[in-house]
Amino acid sequence: MEFRYLGNSGLKISEITYGNWLTHGSQVENDIATQCVHAALDAGITTFDTADVYANTRAEQVLGDALAGQRRESLEIFTKVYWPTGPRGHNDSGLSRKHILESINGSLRRLGTDYVDLYQAHRFDYETPLEETMQAFADVVRQGKALYIGVSEWTAEQIRAGHALAEDLGVQLISSQPQYNMLWRVIEAEVIPACEELGISQIVWSPIAQGVLTGKYAPGGELPAGSRATDEKGGGAQSIKRYLTDEVLAGVEQLKPIAADLGLSMAQLAVAWVLANDNVASALVGASKPEQVADNVGAAGVKLEPEVLSRIDAVVGNLAVTDPAKTVSPDTRPS
């Protein structure tokens, strides 16, 4: 495992982060989830990402239980706040001071820790003044409940505004967590340049396009049993739907010779591709089986040469979504 600095800070994180969206507390049983976490630890992963909304808080609990007994100082634990939790009352979502200060306490309790290394705004809240949100995050940091703050799926303009307020408040906004992979590149035009200027790193989610870039979905073929595309319970089927077109899947098939030439699995090629971007500090990977962790970790330390990146672009570049306007948050708080 290799480690990278997160933004313009002294915090190092593993370049592969284990995330438990769509898996812990919903898609897989708790004992399998624990095995996956332990496989991540065995592979050298020290950074773990979750959110209070995942499985309506159950994912945080599962992760906390799985990490129990580990040396806390050797881990980097991240979580997020914004989406509805609990009984979904009128103040159970968003980035108001009330919801942030109440949510961090619940997250810490479920995770079994006194602090998180990174506390992230899971979307931008148009119903709350940004000044109120950033003041609440600053207070969480001053209380010692989070060491750093970050955002997820914010536009470049929103990141600039949030960073300026954080700087005025004396706290460090050091990360952005967007979706990013060979097929979804909406952050390249605006978000990445802004973050490079501000000293903010990307922790990218869905680097293998929720499994599509593993090559297991064949164009015109049946959906594999037990795959994310068949997960109606945890929401995986809906989230992966946009990638499951014959045109996209046919393009992915053409990546297989590239991976083979490099001695990599398709998943490793996909993860190595996002890590080739200098602004990416870590790639978030999940797993429903322990062996999937080992496969993804095989991308750590892999350096893709420029000619390989050009071959990949020639195959799937025209299939990629690049419109920066695709980075969006709900106009009103979800309930």
From TrEMBL:
In this chain the NADP-dependent oxidoreductase domain maps to 15-315
Keywords from the named record: NADP, Oxidoreductase
Q: Which family does it belong to?
A: Belongs to the shaker potassium channel beta subunit family.
- Record protein name field: Aldo/keto reductase family protein
InterPro entries cross-referenced by the UniProt entry: AKR, K_chnl_volt-dep_bsu_KCNAB-rel, NAD(P)_OxRdtase_dom_sf, NADP_OxRdtase_dom
Q: State the Pfam families in the record.
A: Aldo_ket_red
Q: Does the keyword Oxidoreductase apply?
A: yes
Coiled-coil stretches are none
- Keyword Oxidoreductase attributed: yes
